[in-house]
Write a structure and sequence with these properties.
The complex is a heterodimer.
Chain A: H1 2-32, H2 39-56, H3 61-88, H4 96-116, E1 130-133, E2 136-139, H5 140-162, H6 164-174, H7 176-181, H8 186-212, H9 219-233, H10 238-259, H11 264-278
Chain B: E1 2-11, E2 14-24, E3 29-33, H1 40-48, E4 53-60, E5 63-64, E6 78-81, H2 93-100, H3 109-118, H4 120-124, H5 135-147, E7 153-157, H6 165-182, E8 185-190, H7 193-199, E9 202-207, E10 210-216, H8 217-222, H9 224-231
Parallel strand pairs in B: 3-8, 3-9, 6-7, 7-8
Antiparallel strand pairs in B: 1-2, 1-4, 4-5, 9-10
Helix pairs in contact in B: 2-5
Chain lengths: 288, 233
């Protein structure tokens, strides 16, 4: 029972940041109709900026996170406006956003390597406490991660469902032509949405840096996990990503517990295959 | 109110409008007739500045709109209800209507109440997803959404498309009412020439991207050419 509960809690905690990562990717797909294969690299960039502000500049943790996320938000908007927007406007360039974001990803990894070197960098835990409770152990850092992740998810839901700007994002996602007629500057929505999406990856990068360390290639596995969440949840579905993220976290956690950590990824990607087989549009996806 | 002079439009290298001249005066209902592929929708989109590349003059109340970005058009008092309605299918009727006033900074409560008064059916369906309504209700919602910005000039692209004949009549009655009671100038593009000519004050006939004929709607209704081309008589 304790083992079961421990696995469940671990799963929900991992699931919370998988959901944050997945939402970023799924929103990019839903609004800009493109796949961002550099999503994981913005996660990496967020972690490095956090490291720079907190370890090198010596700022406290919270402002460092805020500035790291803000920095990635700005870089994302700049890259969208400067590079990606030009490709999205051309019909003959059907797959170009894919190639362009691939290039952006490689570029970010190399820039990180030049600036921060290839050695692993670390940041200390936000809080070193370890709670023990009825046989369960839980590092405070992991609880902080889950708390920030869930707060981020709630903030995203409120932004999309309750604000004027969120409506404009939904409208643009559902019908760009019509959104333009309503007076929505859809180019601006594209830019800001892309910035917000990669900023979500940066949130995850900042809060996970103390646990997993920082190196230029840390985004790779995160990229794949984000894809899994998007596909299982249904591409473009925010609610689907939350459910799928938490589901992935729990499945991984239990498979590690019962089959060993070597099987973790096998099980996770099998989930995608099963999904393709049973319900290709994802849990909350639309049939086309 | 609206004066279009020598308007040319292109999709890539393909020209779709050739030296189009159209004038709409304050308070009028003007209809643009044309068969499938004549360039009616291209004309609407070109006036809005969407999709096509354009050359010429689009003068609205003295201002040339040719370089105005599409999303600014609504701030000049122009709205379009596009062909196929283009509601936001996964937003509620209420959200669709409120988005119609997205660009308007003023208080919109009065306009919202007026629109709901005009379309009682929408009032019953405020919290329903727009995509789940019938075609007629969707058209009402699209027109209601366009009215939310308090336009002075309303463009409608094929409002009768896919609707049952009695619903088409209702839609055109509403268009007339909007014109007479709210004083909104209307330009309507229609394949259903009969009802369009009965509703409109003046008409233009567009074929292969060129204006072929224009005149008083009542005269056009009796013109043998129009009868042969558009009325199937």
């Amino acid at each position: 029972m304790t083992v079961f509960l421990q696995s469940l809690i671990n799963g929900i905690i991992s699931g919370s940041y998988y959901a944050v990562l997945g939402i970023g990717l799924t929103v990019t797909w839903g609004v800009l109709k493109m796949i961002n294969v550099a999503h994981g690299d913005f996660y990496m960039l967020g972690a490095y900026l956090f490291y720079t502000f907190s370890r090198i500049a010596g700022l406290p943790v919270v402002p460092s996170i805020i500035m790291g996320v803000l920095g990635v938000f700005l870089v994302g908007m700049l890259l969208q406006r400067g590079i990606i927007a030009h490709a999205l406007g051309r019909e003959a360039f059907g797959n170009s956003p894919f190639i362009i974001t691939l290039a952006i990803g490689i570029m970010l990894e190399n820039i990180a390597q030049i600036i921060w070197g290839e050695n692993n960098r670390g940041v200390p835990y936000f809080n070193e406490t370890v709670f023990e409770f009825g046989g369960l152990t839980m590092a405070a850092q992991r609880l902080i991660v889950a708390a920030i992740a869930f707060a981020t998810l709630i903030a995203v839901m409120i932004l999309i469902k309750k604000t004027r700007f969120g409506w404009a994002i939904s409208a643009t996602a559902q019908d760009r032509f019509s959104a333009t007629l309503m007076g929505i500057n859809t180019n601006r929505i594209y830019m800001v949405t892309f910035g917000l999406a990669v900023a979500l990856a940066a949130v995850a990068g900042c809060i996970l840096a103390p646990i997993y360390g920082i190196n230029p290639w840390m985004g790779g596995s995160v990229q794949l996990k984000s894809f899994v969440v998007c596909i299982v949840g249904g591409l473009g579905s925010v609610g689907g990503s939350i459910v799928a993220g938490i589901l992935l976290g729990i499945v991984e956690s239990f498979s590690t517990q019962f089959f060993g950590s070597g099987w973790q990824n096998v099980i996770a990607y099998s989930l995608v295959l099963v999904m393709f087989w049973v319900r290709p549009e994802g849990i909350f996806g639309k049939k086309h | 109110m609206l004066r279009i002079k020598n308007l040319n439009a292109y999709y890539g290298d393909v020209q779709v409008l050739y030296d189009v001249n159209v004038e709409v005066n304050d308070g009028e209902i003007v209809t643009i007739l044309g068969s499938n592929g004549a360039g009616k929708t291209s004309l609407m989109k070109t006036i809005c500045g969407i999709e096509t590349r354009r050359k010429g003059v689009i003068e609205f109340n003295g201002e040339n709109l040719i370089n105005l970005p599409a999303h600014k058009l609504i701030t000049r008092g122009i709205t379009l209800t596009p062909e196929g309605r283009h509601l936001f299918p996964e937003l509620t009727v209420r959200e669709n209507l409120l988005l119609g006033a997205y660009a308007i900074n003023k208080k919109i409560n009065d306009t919202y109440e007026k629109v709901l008064e005009m379309f009682p059916r929408l009032k019953e369906r405020l919290s329903q997803f727009a995509g789940t309504m019938s075609g007629g209700e969707q058209q009402m919602c699209a027109i209601g959404r366009a009215l939310m910005s308090n336009p002075t000039f309303l463009m409608l692209d094929e409002p009768s498309l896919g609707l049952a004949p009695n619903i088409v009549e209702q839609v055109f009655d509403i268009i007339k009412k909007i014109n007479k009671e709210n004083g909104i100038t209307v330009m309507v593009v229609e394949q259903n020439a009969n009802i369009a000519l009965q509703t409109a004050d003046r008409a233009y006939a567009l074929e292969n991207g060129e204006i072929k004929m224009s005149g008083d709607a009542k005269d056009m209704l009796r013109s043998p050419d129009i009868q042969k081309l558009y009325l199937g008589l």
